[in-house]
């Protein structure tokens, strides 16, 4: 039965991938990408990788889909016809793929008991993590304690990506442009009363669930990455239903940028404290006289830093894309108004 589920899921993934390649409608491509993310999450659940499935569902099927939907509002819905022959690109992809497949031939078979990871690494984590870290969820022990330095690098990469998007897409607006954009948003979001009421009811529960995922990662699937994405999705939902002008009044952009930096600083500061105490960098046993209590405190602090950074960076990216779209809409409206004025002037001259 398990093999049948795996075959069905893999077949659906292949079919969706082929459909994505052949589609010219970018909206349909984004919807199929979201479905691909959900199927991937289901496949990870079938492989007992629940934490990875949680992340894939939140990021691959959730946040990524929303960000791409915002992106196509600026680029257009349909893909332009290809004006060149991508033969060279196809050859490069084929050669790269062949080399990657060739590189996997020396790897041990999937699930082999003789694989190095099952002989050396995994037994240490499975047998000793509870005594050394004291966290029931082994995935959290590995990510937040054993390889905390690697996770810190991932957080820095996320922060850097957010700052890069902010630098590339930030838009400086004049006061009259802001007033026009606010008027446009108010006219667009004045309706949808039922959706607004439902969202007002759902958002507190979404935020509460994000906090549960944040502080329950020691005992079950979750942690700062998933919690940050879920928290940001609630803000996205609020902005989409109530308008960006209202969302900006509720969520200060300067404060969000500061929170993103605070998350990275909090993570790094935990390592500095342990380093100054004579321990290795990010050795949480330096945080308390009881090593297990120190591990719990250190994991709690660094996971909080991860959650703050991820949520803030997601919000920064969303607001940057949406702000760029608003600016383009404002320019289009201004151009249409100028064209109308020119047409009216020509008609007046004729009369």
UniProtKB/TrEMBL annotation:
GO cellular component, one term: plasma membrane
InterPro entries, A to Z: CPA3_antiporter_subunitB, MnhB, MrpA_C/MbhD, MrpA_C/MbhE
Domain named Na+/H+ antiporter MnhB subunit-related protein: residues: 194-315
Residues annotated as domain MrpA C-terminal/MbhE: 115-177
Topology versus the membrane: Multi-pass membrane protein
Keyword field: Cell membrane, Membrane, Transmembrane, Transmembrane helix
Transmembrane segments: 6-21, 26-47, 53-75, 87-105, 152-172, 193-212, 224-243, 255-277, 297-321
Compositionally skewed regions (Low complexity) per UniProt: 332-343
Primary subcellular site in the record, as a coarse category: membrane
Domain MrpA C-terminal/MbhD, residue spans: 11-75
Signal peptide start and end residues: none
Domain of life of the native organism: Bacteria
Region (Disordered): 332-351
Compartments reported by the entry: Cell membrane
NCBIfam families reported in the protein's UniProt record: PRK12504.1, PRK12507.1, PRK12508.1
Family: Belongs to the CPA3 antiporters (TC 2.A.63) subunit B family.
Protein name: Cation:proton antiporter
Taxonomic classification: Bacteria, Pseudomonadati, Pseudomonadota, Gammaproteobacteria, sulfur-oxidizing symbionts
């Amino acid at each position: 039965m398990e093999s049948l589920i795996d075959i069905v899921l893999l077949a659906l993934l292949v079919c969706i991938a082929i459909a994505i390649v052949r589609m010219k409608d970018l909206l349909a491509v984004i919807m199929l990408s979201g479905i691909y993310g959900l199927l991937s999450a289901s496949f990870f659940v079938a492989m007992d990788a629940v934490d990875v499935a949680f992340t894939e569902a939140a990021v691959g099927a959730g946040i990524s889909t929303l960000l791409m939907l915002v992106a196509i509002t600026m680029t257009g819905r349909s893909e332009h016809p290809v004006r060149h022959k991508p033969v060279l690109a196809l050859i490069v992809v084929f050669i790269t793929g062949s080399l990657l497949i060739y590189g996997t031939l020396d790897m041990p078979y999937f699930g082999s008991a003789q694989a190095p990871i099952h002989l050396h690494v995994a037994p240490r984590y499975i047998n000793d993590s509870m005594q050394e870290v004291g966290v029931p969820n082994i995935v959290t022990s590995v990510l937040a304690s054993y390889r905390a330095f690697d996770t810190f690098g991932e957080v820095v990469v996320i922060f850097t990506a957010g700052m890069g998007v902010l630098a590339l897409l930030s838009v400086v607006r004049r006061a009259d442009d802001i007033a026009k954009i606010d008027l446009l948003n108010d006219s667009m979001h004045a309706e949808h009363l039922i959706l607004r009421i439902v969202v007002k009811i759902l958002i507190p529960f979404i935020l509460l669930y994000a906090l549960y995922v944040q502080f329950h990662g020691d005992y079950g699937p979750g942690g700062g990455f998933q919690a940050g994405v879920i928290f940001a999705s609630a803000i996205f939902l609020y902005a989409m239903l109530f308008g960006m002008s209202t969302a900006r009044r509720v969520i200060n952009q300067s404060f969000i940028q500061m929170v993103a930096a605070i998350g990275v600083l909090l993570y790094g500061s935990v390592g500095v404290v342990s380093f100054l105490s004579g321990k290795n960098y990010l050795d949480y046993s330096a945080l308390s006289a009881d090593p297990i209590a120190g591990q719990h405190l250190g994991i709690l602090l660094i996971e909080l830093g991860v959650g703050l950074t991820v949520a803030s960076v997601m919000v920064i990216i969303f607001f940057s894309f949406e702000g760029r779209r608003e600016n383009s809409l404002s320019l289009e409206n201004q151009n249409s108004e100028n064209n109308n004025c020119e047409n009216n002037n020509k008609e007046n001259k004729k009369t």
